[in-house]
Amino acid sequence: MKSKQFWEQVFSDVVGNAISGVIIAALAYFTIDQFYKTPDLNGLWDLEVEVSDTSYESFKGLKVKYQVVIIQDELKLSGTGEKFSEKSTVDSKEKELSGKSRTPIKLTGYIEKNLFTTNKVVITVEEEGLIRSSSTFFRMKNVDDNKMIGRFDSTIAMSHGRATWQRVKNDVGI
Known about the structure:
Layout: H1 3-35, E1 43-53, E2 63-73, E3 76-87, E4 94-96, E5 104-112, E6 120-128, E7 133-143, E8 147-154, E9 160-167
Antiparallel strand pairs: 1-2, 1-9, 2-3, 3-4, 3-5, 5-6, 6-7, 7-8, 8-9
């Protein structure tokens, strides 16, 4: 084989492989979006945390509910909300909060979009409590457009436990 023919063959192979690679990448990009869609988390949510471990024994088993508005920008999350109710193991009665007890929260986070495993959502919540500010970190593994289930770690009495985010149904269609 002559040098000129050799280089023509190499050039032909390189161009063909490059074009094939671009086509495969484009197909993969558009196919992934169809089969592995990003959840739509925009809207009003009820968040319930259940404390399983804490440095303050009275908080063990405590259930706290928040109402939260999530705003989604592609994979980034932000939002606001407030503490709504508490249910302690002492009286096992849910107490709806009002006035200054309905402490405000701000959240930021992101969706971790995975190809071969389930999507994950990571959210950090800053709460302006009556006595001091606190931070809570959420990791949700079971995620869809209407429910997220996972774990939390908080600076509130070094508490840890289970978190459930449930979309508030909107009966008004837009």
